[in-house]
Amino acid sequence: xxxxxxxxxxxxxxxxxxxxxxxxxxxxxxxxxxxxxxxxxxxxxxxxxxxxxxxxxxxxxxxxxxxxxxxxxxxxxxxxxxxxxxxxxxxxxxxxxxxxxxxxxxxxxxxxxxxxxxxxxxxxxxxxxxxxxxxx
Length: 136
Known about the structure:
Elements (H helix, E strand, L loop, with lengths): L10 E2 L8 E2 L2 E2 L17 E7 L4 E2 L14 E2 L3 E5 L2 E2 L1 E7 L8 E6 L7 E9 L2 E2 L4 E5 L1
Parallel strand pairs: 2-13
Antiparallel strand pairs: 1-4, 3-4, 4-10, 5-6, 7-8, 7-11, 9-10, 11-12, 11-13
């Protein structure tokens, strides 16, 4: 059997574990962002994903305890509601196995309220479509 391997293939975690729908995204109070707890525009949210490629430092299979926490080695961008989201942190998450990634993003001010698409690009490869963030 041949199995293709790529250096980067970002995949956002979702609340229902299907890979689409509301993202497994926390607000700055570590509460899940949901329809009943939408994120404010301009606030910071914490997005979780995998498939970010090489991290430095990082040893596969070990739990990130930090400091230092491993940081992504590839170029990364994020968009919420079609607008660029400021990336405040992109790297390992304390308590997750290396390869689990935490992104701290600022929700863009100019986007509309409601369910907005979240797209992360690492090393030129985009995350799956259909992941959303509820915005107030």
